[in-house]
Write a structure and sequence with these properties.
about 40% helix; two-stranded antiparallel sheet; ten-stranded mixed beta sheet; alpha/beta; globular; single chain; 14 strands; about 475 residues
């Protein structure tokens, strides 16, 4: 699995030139500020004291000590961890710094005791189902304010700050109370996936409306194939579908109402009601892949790879995560969520932006090394290393060498993103209010198991919003 949170963007200077260059490299288009900008203010202080550095210079802005050690922990999910090993080898070659590398899916289990004991790693890819929530770490004063890295000179062009080399808006998901405390490194899209081979064999065409989507699911069921698979044990995934339906039906206002904890974000929202009722239609008509509610992400995805379901919902880490399980002729394809009648956003609109949050703990033992490591992550060399090893794009503008060939599923995300253009959106409540996000996921789990109906789901989701709104700190996060 990739990031369980997973991104935003803005209209930048020379955007058309960027798109042209990106198209040549197979890169994803840039979302607009009107869709994705998050405005936040205030915030307490996080420790930025760095006692681990040596002498600084233009080429060594943080005073990295050659021969020191670096402790790196990476979530070994959809993107694997080979890319991090390649980074660490490059880092050692340049600085003589050896890394202690840990690739794991047990982020909380392995790292919570270390955070609690004041001995966290130096760099962490804090992702996956067992992610330590970013908002929780921030409130506990355990994260470094990354402004010091983002305002440092870019490795590729020292005349520019690092932040000025990134796709506009992609820093937004790492923001807590106006500070960037997590670097969401991977440019990601979320939506539906299907097999081009299966669709060709069955004569199905990519559905643009919800009625057409249901019709394909019904035809699949008649032929002994599930309609929709989802990663039942991790309801984050089905929430992608539910929330996308709400955003596309009600437009940006419906999305921002949820992020801004509106008292009518769910109960009293026609878009929210229509979105959740649409997903429940799949449940009510028996169009889910049999058994999908009880499966993990990889179990559901593997059965989908075995042609046991027509569709599955996921982010763009899916292809890399399923490399060993995907038949050579599967022809993996990505598509936006289909439209409900009178939707305010077009079919081409997709959820897109940055995912996979990397953090530097405030009490890291080698802060100087950690900062330089993150600065090098945002170089073309390391961005290209990532694309080669993980088959995905990063938030660095023009960050992938043209020699890198993307696989079919990832290439299809590029094509869908180009078609979307400015019509991209991204929820931020999962980063700002993790407890609220967990409560909504729990309600979705009950919904998909047919233990509650849409009206009750809306009540539970609104209750989670109302609870989050009572926290005075919530006033410091706001989308315009």
């Amino acid at each position: 699995m990739g990031s369980t949170s997973a991104a935003n963007g803005s209209e930048g200077v020379g955007r058309r030139d960027l798109i042209k260059r990106s198209a040549a490299l197979g890169l994803i288009s840039v979302p607009t500020m009107s869709f994705l900008s998050a405005c936040a203010s205030g915030g307490g202080d996080n420790s930025n004291n760095d006692n681990s550095g040596g002498k600084t210079s233009k080429s060594n802005p943080f005073g990295v000590k050659k021969g020191s050690k670096l402790d790196v922990v990476v979530f070994k999910g959809g993107y694997g961890d080979d890319y991090a090993k390649a980074w660490e080898a490059s880092f050692q070659k340049k600085w003589g710094i050896t890394s202690t590398h840990t690739g794991t899916q047990e982020i909380t289990g392995k790292l919570q005791p270390r955070f609690n004991g004041g001995t966290p790693p130096d760099v962490v890819d804090d992702s996956g189902a067992q992610q330590i929530k970013i908002d929780v770490l921030y409130k506990n004063g355990q994260l470094l304010d990354l402004a010091v890295v983002l305002d440092s000179p870019s490795i590729d062009d020292p005349s520019k700050k690092v932040r000025d080399t990134l796709i506009p808006g992609t820093l937004d998901p790492g923001m807590q109370e106006g500070k960037i405390v997590a670097l969401n490194y991977i440019y990601t899209v979320w939506g539906l996936w299907y097999s081009g081979k299966l669709f060709k064999e069955k004569g199905w065409e990519e559905p643009k409306t919800w009625d057409d989507f249901i019709a394909i699911c019904q035809d699949a069921k008649k032929q002994g194939i599930g309609g929709l698979a989802h990663q039942g044990k991790y309801p984050y995934y089905i929430n992608v579908a539910i929330m996308d339906m709400i955003a596309k039906k009600g437009g940006l206002d419906a999305m921002k109402a949820i992020d801004n904890l509106d008292p009518k974000a769910f109960v009293g929202s026609d878009a929210a009601q229509a979105g959740v009722e649409a997903i429940y239609e799949v449940v009510e008509k028996g169009l889910l892949m049999p058994g999908t509610n009880g499966l993990t992400h990889t179990e559901s995805q593997t059965r989908w790879n075995q042609y046991k379901a027509a569709f599955i919902t996921c982010g763009s880490w899916l292809e890399n995560e399923q490399l060993k399980q995907t038949p050579a002729d599967f022809d993996m394809k990505f598509m936006p969520m289909p439209l409900l009648p009178d939707s305010k956003l077009p079919f081409e609109a997709i959820r897109a932006g940055s995912g996979e949050p990397f953090i530097i703990p405030a009490k890291a033992g080698n802060l100087a090394g950690a900062k330089e490591f993150m600065r090098m992550m945002l170089s073309k060399e390391w961005s290209t290393l990532f694309a080669k090893e993980a088959n995905s794009l990063t938030i660095l503008k023009d960050g992938v060498d043209p020699s890198v060939t993307l696989r079919p599923g990832t290439q299809s995300t590029v094509e869908v993103s180009k078609a979307a253009g400015d019509n991209t959106f991204r929820f931020l409540y999962t980063e700002w209010y993790s407890e609220m996000g967990t409560a909504i996921e729990a309600a979705s789990n009950e919904l998909m198991a047919k233990r509650i109906q849409p009206k009750e789901w809306l009540k539970r989701a609104q209750a989670a919003v109302d609870k989050a709104a009572k926290d005075p700190a919530s006033k410091k996060n706001h989308r315009d």
